[in-house]
Amino acid sequence: MAGLDHIRVVLVATTQPGNIGSAARAMKTMGLRRLHLVAPRLFPHAEATALAAGATDVLESAIVHPALEPAVADCSLLIGASARRRGVALPELAPREAATQLLAAARAGRQVALLFGTERTGLSNDELQRCHACVRIPADADYSSLNLAQAVQVLAYELRLAALDAGAVTDAGGEQPRGPRERPATSAELEGFFRHLDEALHAIDFHKGKDGTTIMRRLRRLFLRARPSEREVAILHGILAEAERMARLAAGRR
């Protein structure tokens, strides 16, 4: 069924096992079950189990990944929670808006992810670069310190409200299915396209010997905003392949 079941919570490089347990408890109270852990420092751990307080099923079904890429490879919408503004230009959403977008994509049958970074520093710039948008909880500026589990609870609550408002879930927990839509490109497909794009730009000497990092960051943001479909990404791959072919022919004539 579509809805909350298609939303995964991804905790990146969590250092304290108790925070994993508390996050699992926060998720379960709001009807979220899909927990993914990226390179946790300690897991499984007795402290995580103790603080889950009845949400041990969420912990037991949690999927552990060595890196972020496999954790979100099949997702077509990624929203990263960030407590501070970073050097990455991203659309910034309020919690309610983020929840609405995540739920709408999930109800369309898409896999979506809500990302949380490590406790001390949050998501890195490289991790945020994979996201389509970031969400910021508008805490009091004089004391805006939320711990990881609290942040998960706030956003899980907003997802629950969005599901209730949309009729996607009932207070008893039952979800309403939605019909399939055209599939947007997944994170893995987009990352493959970005690698191909970078290779093609070098093949046609677009950067003229300069570092192309800034250009690639801008192009990444452009295509993430566009949210292309699987078919559109395939067309873009075809264009790049033709550009590379023409570059090889031109090189052969010199």
Percent range for β-strand residues: 5-15%
Strand order of the largest sheet: 3-2-1-6-4-7-5
Average pLDDT taken over every residue: 91
The gyration radius over C-alpha positions equals 20 Å
Note the overall shape: elongated
Number of helices: 10
Say how many strands there are. 7
Order of helices and strands: EHEHHEHEEHEHEHHHH
Largest sheet: 7 strands, parallel
DSSP helix fraction: 40-55%
> Unreliable runs, pLDDT <50, ≥5 residues?
175-180
Structural class designation: alpha/beta
Question: How would you describe this structure in keywords?
Answer:
254 residues; alpha/beta; seven-stranded parallel sheet; elongated
List the helices and strands and how they pair.
Layout: E1 7-12, H1 17-29, E2 34-38, H2 46-52, H3 56-60, E3 63-65, H4 68-72, E4 77-81, E5 92-93, H5 95-107, E6 112-116, H6 125-129, E7 133-135, H7 148-166, H8 187-203, H9 213-226, H10 230-253
Parallel strand pairs: 1-2, 1-6, 2-3, 4-6, 4-7, 5-7
Helix pairs in contact: 1-2, 1-7, 5-7, 8-10
